[in-house]
Task: structure prediction
Amino acid sequence: MIARARSQDFPRLRRRASPSILTDMSFTGSAGAADPKELNLLLIAEPDFDAGPLAEALRERGYRPAWMRVESASALRAKLFARRWNGIVAAPVPTFDVLDALRIAKRESRETPFIIVGAPLAGCVEFLRAGADECVMENEETEMGAITERALQRAETQQAQRLAERRFRSLIESLPQSIILHRDRRILYANPTCLRYLGLSRVEDLLGRDPVGLVIEDDRPRLAESIVRLGVGQSVAPMEIELLLQGGRTLPVEVASFPLDYDGQPAIATAARDLSREREMQQKVFMADRMVSVGMLAAGVAHEVNNPLAYVQANLDFALEQLVRIESAACSEVCAALEEAREGATRVRSIVCDLKTFSRPDEQRVDVVDVRPLLESAINMSFNEIRHRARLVKDYGPVPQVSVVPARLGQVFLNLIVNAAQAIPEGAVEQNEIRLSTSTDEEGRAVVAVRDTGSGMPPEVLRHIFDPFFTTKPTGVGSGLGLSISQGIVSSLGGEITVRSAPGGGSEFRVLLPPAPPADHRADPRPATRQEEPRARILAVDDEEMVGNALRRIFTGHDFEFVRSGKAALEQIEAGARYDVILLDLTMPQMSGMRLYTELMRIDPAQAARVIFITGGVLTAAAQRFLDEVPNLRLHKPFDAGELRAVVRKQRTG
Result:
């Protein structure tokens, strides 16, 4: 065992009697030295210690040393507290043990290099073990300059490294991405974002853990393989994995790993980026794209159904009108059968109309509407969810009109009604109720309330019901987007959605919308009783021949003509034919109704003014813009005989 070195064990170094070295001294570099580096050194030595050789050696190396001497522990502490020093040089002092001085220096100023001069070999070993940076042994005074410079340079390098590490730590601790540093599959460091991702409060809870254990079971082999590949110098591409959080929850992240040096040894840094918002946006885009696809399908179905439904309903109306003139028991039974058929056609018509309403969720056309018909459409679309779960009660009070995009507000009502139905288990219809009500609040807003007697929601669920992808429904029943989308739609209309709910007490959602000022809208004409009318010359243009046949029966008693193309109609008018009314299908192959109208405006504006447009489905953006710009009347398929006669009468009478 090495004996503890004491100050008295040092050999006596050279002394000189010059009184100038008995106090603090400063030495300047020799003339002609280029940019000498200033050194502030703290000297622990007796007053007669000869520092000249060390000063000269440092000057020869381009330094300009300045000294401050101390001889006691209290003086050392005071000087270390007062300022920063480039180094501490310790020589034997009978009243101040060198090991005590070393301990004080490392405690008060750990980064300052501590150099001991004039120690025996055994003493140097103990001093270096105790933390001294350099030790100049006895009889090596000629090496004092080189050894001191080496200690100073090493301290400068270490200080620069510590500064770089502090800057690096400051940088990674402020990053929004999770960062961990690990070596041999043991975590050495984790930034605050990583702790936040994992739901931890102390970094100590992570240090020493295997980073592979932070991810779900299925992703562990891939992450472990990437660590092995990095360890042998191979590159690793970023990968998407799932972090395992507190309570068994998961967080999707993208991780990228790369090698680096940490504390002077090879390590691996792994950065993780939260993908949850990105996944939410992808899901929203997917849902929006799917809704557009469904909307296009519904629009196509509506158009294809509307054309045959138009002549089915028109022919049923014609047949009933003819049969009611015949009074007989047989005719009465036939009339009853036809009436039932007409009611069925009317029901199909209503369903198709609702499909048209909900088939364009991306539609941005704003209309002033009454919310009650939109509620009815939502009921029709969702009634299959309601009928086996609850009684439907309607309590419609006076309500102001609102300025909205009808399809989007209809989507809100549909979401709320479906949610209300799905909150009630099947099989107890008479014991459960879904109540829809409309009213006007004290601020004049339209209020639509959807109330159910379902299971209700606890406060912890209520706090999140409008969050995207939050759902308590089983997998496959809901996406967790309905209420989030509904809230966004209502907010965009200047309104709000409120909710009240309690476990076992059902829920009530209220949609509040600001009223709209009255607007001038051309309403579709309503059915009218048949009247004897002056004979008129009527041209019908439609690519469906059955529609033409039905129209011919309805307009018995008028001069009626039918053509199946816009080109044929244009040729007749160019040849001199003139009509009191032109019933024109908007969308036809080859020459559309829009193009025919444009040609009529060019060659005969008076005939163009007699056009009544007939539409059979959801309009394209171009068709909608066209109708918005022309003053002509329009009629939507399927129509009944009364509606058709009413719009023709209105066209003729102006």
